[in-house]
Input
Amino acid sequence: MKIGYYPGCSLHSTGIEYDLSTRKVCDVLGVELAEVSKWVCCGSSPAHQCDELMSIALPAKNMVLAQKDGLKEVCAPCASCYSRLKVAQERLKDPEVKKDVEHVLAAEVPEDMEILHILDVITEKVGLDAVADKVVQNLGGVKVACYYGCLMTRPPKVTGKRDFENPTDMESVMAALGAEPLDWNLKTFCCGASFALTKTDVVLELTKKILTDAEAVEADVIAVGCPLCHANLDGRQPQINEKFSTDFNIPIMYFTELMGLAFGVKPKELGLFKHLTEVDDFLKERALI
Amino acid sequence: MKVIGPEEIRIDSTLAEEVARRSGENVFLCYQCRKCASGCPSRTFMDSTPTELMRYVQLGMIDEAMKGNTAWFCVSCQTCSTRCPQDIDIAHVIDTLRIIVQEKKIKAETNNIRLFNRIWMIAMKYIGRMYEAGLVGSLNLFTGKPFKDMALGVKMIRKGKIKMIPPIRNPFPTMKMFSRAKGLKK
Output
């Protein structure tokens, strides 16, 4: 199966381990990822906060590029990229918006492009049976709190998701790997992503709530599917501990990293040593590396 | 929340009309059920709740709607838009308010977000992709906090997560897009 791949800026920098693990996992599952050539940034939060037209034109540019590559489906692992691509598709249904965007691009925007999150590719295109088939190292009941954040599911009008208040796709994948997905409250609560650099206090407050809830259900690890959530949950733990006198040291892993481990991919190839809250001790303790 | 007396009663729908024209969202559908306010993760930081903000836009209370910090504390988590029983895309309304403030250069409590957006869009235009080191560096420089998140940044550079060299490839496509968009707005 060949599918377009839009990594986005984060997966080439702060979320490098998400890119590495996604590629490895898709390799094992027989999904060929074709990176959209010459892709540009989707504009992310700043674009939709300051320039409506460019916030649609930038994602649309990537759809045009994907079509040039002969792609009909594009998957984006970053929840923000995924959301911006989906929102652009939704807004482009308005003929006036479409006219303006096509003027900015000097090209026609493809209408039938299918935009998927990488989790959708795994659950819908590949299927859980195929995932379970590839497991060579059962995760041995590791307790996982699956964290979706905002944009993997919301708003449902855009994402088309049915279980947006209590999504369970990631839990199904974790169960297929032999892990124990936990029931917890804040799986779709916001981490404050777009304020990471501008209003860090908000991020620390929101991220603390998420970590507290995960700790309350005794999670061994929090699984995420967004590089911005990861950067906040993984990187801000020392600052949270300092500010709130807490003692968090919870491993935050991309769900693709956990899949890679279960598939027997070497830890280094998954980027497991690039985390800021180190995961080595936890994985050694559970005899997973 | 501001309480107004009988002598002050007047409704100015100019702002609501502008929001509708730009976003396609009709704020008059809001009947103040407060679902948006109760689900908002950021509400404790805001001057007013999202529900109150919707009322300000309905009533054309421009100062309250635009100059306070409420719109600028919206994290764009889409919870309000998801739960609104009237199907108003509240996060889109808030984005529209922020766009109006920035376009008209209205003085507002934006807490550096206006600056952050500008730096980001400049990178978009001339690089086409995000350049984290440049973004953080210039943001810290302009806000006068050069050492903010220093320890975190150093760790990330060591782990190879932040690249010092900007990811410049071919900047012309995005530069052309921005200039055509500028032409269109005129």
Q: What stands out?
A: Residues 234 and 275 of chain A are 7 Å apart (CA to CA). The radius of gyration of chain A is 19 Å. Chain A has a mean pLDDT of 96. Strands of chain A lie at 2-5, 32-35, 73-76, 114-117, 143-147, 180-181, 221-224, 252-254.
